[in-house]
Amino acid sequence: MIWIKKRLFVGVLAVSALLLAGCGGAGGGSAGGSGGGGSEVRTVEHAMGETEVEGTPGRVVVLDTGELDSAMSLGVTPVGAVEAVEGLGLPSYLEGTGEIENVGTIEEPNLEKIATLEPDLILSSKLRHGSIYGQLSQIAPTVFTKTTGVTWKANLEKHAEAMNRTGEAEKVMDGYEKRLGDFGNAMGDRLGETEVSVVRFLPGETRIYQKASFVGTVLEDAGLPRPPSQDVDEFAILNASEEAIPDMGGDEIFVTAYGPEEETTRERITSDPLWQKLDAVREGRVHEVSDDLWMLGIGPTAAEGVVDDLERRLTGK
Prior knowledge:
Layout: H1 12-20, E1 41-46, E2 49-54, E3 60-62, H2 65-73, E4 80-83, E5 101-105, H3 111-116, E6 121-125, H4 126-129, H5 133-139, E7 142-145, H6 152-163, H7 166-187, E8 196-202, E9 205-209, H8 214-222, E10 236-237, E11 252-257, H9 266-270, H10 273-276, H11 279-282, E12 286-288, H12 291-296, H13 300-315
Parallel strand pairs: 3-4, 3-6, 4-5, 6-7, 8-11, 11-12
Antiparallel strand pairs: 1-2, 8-9, 9-10
């Protein structure tokens, strides 16, 4: 879990000055950018209460990767977005992000930079930025979901409501359902018989992903069963040690790595004799996939990308 550091509040006075100078919008009740002009004002209920949003926002700032995926999936290129960590950039699977302004990181959004962009909507979650909701809502109407990851579909609906794009969201999810159907047809009789394991190597930690995660929901939607240790309504087995390697087994193992390769746990885990004994390892059924797509995306475009990966790796198509 990523928490906001205290030093995040450095610069709040500068933000207030910008607001007084007319750069930002009023508190959560009015738009601060291009969504005005007498457009209808809608009241959006969300994790932090209610926010009035005017018209169809055109200058959106997103403060997590899920919100970025939602916006881009709905045809909105945000004016500002955060990186997951400094220097990582925006998720590589998304196209058309080159002109989006960097407004800090998930852990430390740059409030002053956000204000200078004059957004008419800010999207994030209570999990990530509940402690600075007040400051954000002074800049522009701000809508928060409760959390991220496993709730990506409900989050998309809330993001679409805030951006006045509910029709687009329905089309996006219809496309996702069609993609799942095509995948099921490609898998045929193997669909309900192929247990899929998901393992992530991070600096100093290995995670075994379970059902209550973004990728867990996509695998369930796709009709793919999980190994017993992963077929659990929890997020993940965190800090998995070498003793947990048997829990990483499955008919097919999908692995991702986050962070500098030399700092991740990959070498330690994959060189262990227990890893080498896994059937999927011995039979060449371990698949390296994009961490951006499988772990950071958390939205409909990422979900379809995961299904694309599954079809390529499991059917060769």
